[in-house]
C-alpha cells in the first residue's frame, strides 16, 4: 500500500527522468494524487474534499505565483543594465566577486537563474574556459532558499504547516555550514580555471564568507524572509567595493545601476518593518481556507517588483516599452505559474487526504527515527530534477510531515530538506542547460563541468542528511 500512496511522487519524478517536461509531469502527478486519494486515501476523502485540498494548495501557491510573474518582469527590465558593469581584471578576486557575491545577490533579488547567468558570463569575461565557467557559476546559487525573495521556502513552510520565522534561521545555519565546506571547492575549481587564489585571497574570501554567513543567520533571526539575504549580502558587497576601489568606487554610475535594487530594498523594508505602513497595507486580506495562510495583496513583494519594473521600462522607452515588457513577462511566466499551482496542489492533496501520514506510519515502523534521513534526499532529488526549490518542497514536505513528529526535530529536518533541494537546483539539468546555451558550451564541456562538481553533490546531500538524522536521533 505504501507504494500506491507514493505513486504520485514516483510518477512525477519518473516522467521527468524519462525526459517529459516538468509541466506534463506535474499535471500527471496531480491527477494521480487525486485518484489515489479518492480510491485508497487513509481518510477516504470524497471528490469534493479532494478538490478542496487542491484549491487550498493553489491558494498557497497564489502569492508565490504573483512574485514569479513580478520578479520576472523586474529581471527582464534590468537585463541590459547588468551588462554595463565595469570590466574587471582577470584575477581571483574578480571571479569570486562574480560567483560568491554579485550572483547570489541577483539570484536573491530576482530569482529565475539570473544570478547563474551573471556569474557564468562574468567568468567568461575573465577568460575562464567554458567548462570551469559552468562549474564556478554554480556557487551563485548558494542562497537559493532566499531566491526570488524566498518564494520556494515560503511554500515549503506552508505545505509543512510550520512557522516561517522559526524555520528560516535554521535554514541559514545549515547554509552557513555548507558555505564553510564548499569554499575550498571553489578554490579548487578556481585553480582549474587558471585563476588560483593566493594566500591573501584565501584569507580575504574566507573572512568575507564567514562574515556573510554570520550576517545571514543574524538577519534571519531578526528580519522578514524577503529582506534577510539582501541585508546580509549588502554590507559584504560594500566592504568588497571599498577594499578594491575605495570610496571613489561609490560613484554616480554605480548608484544608478543599483537604484532599482535600492528602491526594492527600501520598499520591502517599509512594507515589512514600519508598523504604520504594514498595518495600512495589511487590509484587505483574504483567508478562504482554514488550514491555509492569509494573503494580503498589498503586502506582497510582487507589488514593488512590478512597480519598479514598469518605472524602469517607462524611463527607457515609454508606454511602448512597458507594454512590451508586460507581454514578454506574461508569455515567459505562464508555464512556471501553472507548474507552481500543480506542484503545491499535488503536495496539499497528499497531506490533506492522509497519503503522507500513511506513508510516514509505514516507513517509521520499519526505520524509526532513521527515516528522517529520507527527507533531505527527497528534497535534493526534487530540486535536481525540477530545477526549482518549489518542486523540491512539493516532493519533500509531505514526507517531512509524515516521517518526523512535530517539534524541534521536524523544523531541523525541514530546514535540511529545503537547503538540499535548493542547492541541488544549482546543478540541475534545467540550470546547467541555461548556462550551456548562453556560452555555447559543447556537450563534452558540460559533462566536464558536472564531473568537476561531484563534491558539490556529496557535500550538500551528505551534510543535510547528517543534520536531519542528528536532529531526529536527539529529539
UniProtKB/TrEMBL annotation:
Gene Ontology cellular component terms for the protein in this record: plasma membrane
Write the record's keywords in alphabetical order, separated by commas: Cell membrane, Membrane, Transmembrane, Transmembrane helix, Transport
Molecular functions per Gene Ontology? lactate transmembrane transporter activity; solute:proton symporter activity
Give the transmembrane ranges.
Answer: 50-74, 133-155, 167-187, 225-242, 254-274, 294-315, 336-363, 411-432, 452-472
* InterPro entries per the UniProt record, alphabetical: Lactate_perm
Per the record, the domain of life is Bacteria
Q: How is this protein situated with respect to the membrane?
A: Multi-pass membrane protein
Localization of this protein: Cell membrane
The family assignment reads: Belongs to the lactate permease family.
Protein name as annotated: Lactate permease
Look up and give the organism this protein is from. Bosea lupini
Amino acid at each position: 500500500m505504501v507504494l500506491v500512496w507514493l505513486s504520485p511522487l514516483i510518477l512525477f519524478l519518473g516522467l521527468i527522468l524519462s525526459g517529459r517536461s516538468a509541466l506534463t509531469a506535474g499535471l500527471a502527478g496531480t491527477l494521480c494524487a487525486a485518484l489515489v486519494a479518492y480510491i485508497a486515501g487513509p481518510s477516504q476523502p470524497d471528490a469534493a474534499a479532494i478538490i478542496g485540498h487542491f484549491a487550498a494548495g493553489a491558494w498557497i501557491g497564489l502569492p508565490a505565483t504573483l512574485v514569479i510573474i513580478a520578479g520576472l518582469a523586474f529581471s527582464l527590465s534590468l537585463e541590459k543594465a547588468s551588462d554595463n558593469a565595469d570590466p574587471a581584471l582577470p584575477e581571483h578576486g574578480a571571479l569570486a566577486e562574480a560567483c560568491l557575491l554579485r550572483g547570489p545577490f541577483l539570484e536573491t533579488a530576482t530569482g529565475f537563474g539570473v544570478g547563474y547567468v551573471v556569474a557564468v558570463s562574468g567568468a567568461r569575461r575573465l577568460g575562464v574556459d567554458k567548462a570551469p565557467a559552468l562549474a564556478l557559476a554554480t556557487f551563485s546559487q548558494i542562497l537559493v532558499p532566499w531566491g526570488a525573495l524566498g518564494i520556494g521556502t515560503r511554500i515549503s513552510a506552508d505545505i509543512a504547516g510550520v512557522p516561517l520565522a522559526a524555520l528560516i534561521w535554521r535554514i541559514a545555519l545549515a547554509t552557513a555550514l555548507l558555505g564553510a565546506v564548499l569554499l575550498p571547492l571553489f578554490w579548487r575549481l578556481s585553480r582549474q580555471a587558471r585563476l588560483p587564489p593566493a594566500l591573501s585571497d584565501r584569507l580575504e574570501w574566507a573572512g568575507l564568507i564567514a562574515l556573510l554567513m554570520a550576517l545571514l543567520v543574524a538577519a534571519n533571526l531578526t528580519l522578514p524572509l524577503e529582506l534577510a539575504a539582501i541585508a546580509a549580502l549588502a554590507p559584504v558587497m560594500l566592504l568588497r567595493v571599498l577594499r578594491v576601489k575605495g570610496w571613489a568606487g561609490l560613484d554616480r554610475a554605480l548608484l544608478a545601476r543599483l537604484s532599482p535594487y535600492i528602491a526594492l530594498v527600501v520598499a520591502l523594508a517599509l512594507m515589512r518593518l514600519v508598523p504604520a505602513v504594514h498595518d495600512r497595507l495589511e487590509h484587505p486580506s483574504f483567508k478562504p481556507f482554514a488550514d491555509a495562510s492569509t494573503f494580503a495583496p498589498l503586502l506582497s513583494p510582487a507589488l514593488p517588483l512590478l512597480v519598479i519594473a514598469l518605472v524602469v521600462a517607462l524611463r527607457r522607452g515609454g508606454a511602448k516599452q512597458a507594454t512590451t515588457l508586460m507581454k514578454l513577462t506574461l508569455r515567459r511566466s505562464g508555464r512556471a505559474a501553472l507548474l507552481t499551482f500543480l506542484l503545491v496542489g499535488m503536495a496539499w492533496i497528499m497531506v490533506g487526504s492522509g497519503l503522507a501520514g500513511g506513508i510516514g506510519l509505514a516507513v517509521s515502523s520499519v526505520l524509526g527515527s532513521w527515516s528522517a534521513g529520507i527527507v533531505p534526499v527527497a528534497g535534493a532529488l526534487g530540486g535536481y530534477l525540477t530545477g526549482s526549490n518549489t518542486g523540491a518542497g512539493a516532493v519533500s514536505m509531505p514526507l517531512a510531515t509524515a516521517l518526523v513528529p512535530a517539534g524541534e526535530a521536524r523544523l531541523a529536518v525541514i530546514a535540511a530538506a529545503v537547503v538540499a533541494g535548493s542547492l541541488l537546483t544549482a546543478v540541475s539539468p534545467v540550470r546547467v542547460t541555461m548556462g550551456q546555451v548562453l556560452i555555447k558550451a559543447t556537450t563534452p564541456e558540460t559533462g566536464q563541468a558536472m564531473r568537476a562538481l561531484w563534491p558539490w553533490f556529496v557535500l550538500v546531500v551528505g551534510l543535510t542528511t547528517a543534520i536531519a538524522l542528528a536532529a531526529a536521533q536527539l529529539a
